[in-house]
Specification:
Chain lengths: 339, 339
């Protein structure tokens, strides 16, 4: 098989804020699947905040993307050629296919999808990595109890909206934080949050804290951390004793934003409020993915869990879509449609 | 019953570093035990770092000591008069008697001691609050596994020495940090640590980190946090993925010491190394005290757990002994003998 494929590589590392110059679209020869591999044509690729972390050098939970290397991404694709007995051309699969029109992957590293069961895109969002992140983080580290209060930022994003809905189902008061009045309305009206604050309406963490305190009259028991920055500054003094903070992201700090929060202040709150703070990345917990699907799948199918997707078109538009997402320009799970 | 008693009250709040002027010795009338109370003559009182936190205003896990109020302390005393069927004069009891020669306490708030089972002072140290703090924090939040590496500061103190010995018994590599070569020698030779570093020998957290890295060739899995400051700065970058940090104190930061560690740096390590950070104060966990005594009591009796006590004399010397302890002037559990 011969032909060309497109991919987007990391052209340079961002100094602080990432820009389109950090990416380069390339056309290269289609790879051939080795023994046990399949060649996939990507239909949908996922854009997620964690990818910003991979653009920086330095030790992290995953090695950084190297200069000249294809940017990392999960995707849904159609098997185009197979060198594995487990897949036939025409099968659909979920895998880490990168920012690319095609990819070779080991059959053992990808998962077959049944297009009839749920829309293919849900494998990237509500029933995929973000939804699973929300479910596992809330369950394993948030340990929600009916009557408690939970706060989550990026409330209409694929993680935040799932955290909020799962917590509501367990009987918690759920207060979201989002960027702009439209997203706040969505959080309350579509996702059922008790309240949602527009962080753009508060010019300091103190002002945001005051508004949060009014919406959390019994304090905050769980802060599901996916943003860091001003929201964490606002939330920490409102945490109740024995509070829990699952930490799955800190997007506000990936680009080095300044903060008035000090290390001793965090440590003091951890100590005097007996907080439980747990960092995690969902890639370490896929042994629970089946449990998640069994619980969340029927809720998505029945409509008791809602989800929103924001679908851009064309691989060439991935960089600007990604950069816009980092600034909150998307509404719902950001996906790029390639085919 | 009439007579006088002595007590030490908080005369003023420290600006930063506490000093003897913050305390005042007073002579007042002996209180009378109400129904259900006993009057105790204190033989030994405990001095512990957490008391420094109580001298500051502001919300903490316990209310601050008010100006003019008796400083908080645990103590061992002899019942002098009893208005409870549960205690007779001559009985010995452990309770929160404060920095005072005598105290009234509810019978239900104190615990009878059997002087024959173990020296009375052990109820304040190795078999009391510090030893129990070490045991619970290590067990519940450290989750030690044979072959792992643990680091603990104040290694010859009553908490650090117990943490180290318990971890050694579970098959961990144990590296201590202490102030001065004599304490380091003690940590290794008496308490069986694999190594102990003198933090005074390193003028920066980077230098301490380099020395720690050499003693922890497989990284650090558990950092039992009781000091904060330079030690935490040195340790954090050496933490392994899935590391655990029980936080029971941050003495270096109680007095507002400067640090180069930032909040985003802590948060990033929590996230990318999947750390589990748990603040706790042992007063919330006394339902496990019986379990602790059943496990640790025989080990202390048999000598397989060692302990050291540093016994000062006279209530009037408590302030200067306390201030010296905050600077590491003690060796072993600091106690003041009153009788």
């Amino acid at each position: 098989m011969t032909g060309q494929m497109q991919r987007i590589v990391l052209a340079s590392r961002p100094d602080a804020q990432a820009s389109e110059e950090n990416f380069r679209l390339e056309s290269v020869s289609l790879p051939q699947p080795s023994e046990g591999e399949v060649l996939v044509k990507v239909h949908y690729m996922s854009l997620d905040p964690y990818m910003r972390g991979r653009m920086n050098a330095g030790k992290s939970y995953a090695p950084p993307v190297e200069i000249g290397e294809t940017m990392t991404a999960g995707g849904v694709g159609e098997v185009f050629a197979s060198n594995s007995p487990d897949f036939q051309p025409g099968d659909f699969a979920l895998g880490m296919f990168g920012w690319a029109s095609h990819a070779c992957a080991k059959a053992s590293d990808i998962r077959k999808l049944e297009p009839g069961l749920a829309p293919l895109t849900t494998a990237l969002g509500v029933l995929g990595m973000p939804g699973f992140t929300a479910w596992h983080g809330l369950d394993a580290y948030g340990r929600p109890q009916a009557g408690e209060t939970l706060v989550v930022a990026a409330a209409t994003g694929p993680v935040g909206s799932m955290v909020g809905q799962l917590a509501k189902q367990k009987g918690l008061r759920v207060v979201g934080i989002a960027g702009g009045p439209d997203k706040c309305k969505l959080a309350v009206e579509t996702f059922g949050f008790d309240a949602c604050l527009d962080h753009r309406a508060y010019d300091s963490s103190e002002a945001l804290r005051e508004a949060l305190a009014a919406e959390c009259p019994d304090g905050i028991d769980i802060y599901y951390e996916n943003v860091g920055g001003k929201v964490l500054e606002a939330v920490l003094p409102l945490m109740n004793s024995f509070g829990r903070i699952p930490v799955c992201g800190m997007i506000a700090w990936y680009e080095g934003a300044q903060t008035s929060l000090t290390a001793p202040a965090i440590w003091r709150d951890v100590l005097v409020k007996f907080l439980s703070v747990n960092g995690f990345i969902i890639f370490n917990h896929y042994h629970r993915y089946g449990d998640f699907l069994r619980e969340a799948g029927p809720m998505v199918a029945s409509g008791s869990i809602k989800y929103l997707e924001d679908i851009a078109e064309g691989l060439e538009n991935a960089p600007k879509t990604f950069l816009s997402m980092l600034q909150g320009g998307n509404t719902g799970k950001q996906i790029v449609k390639l085919v």
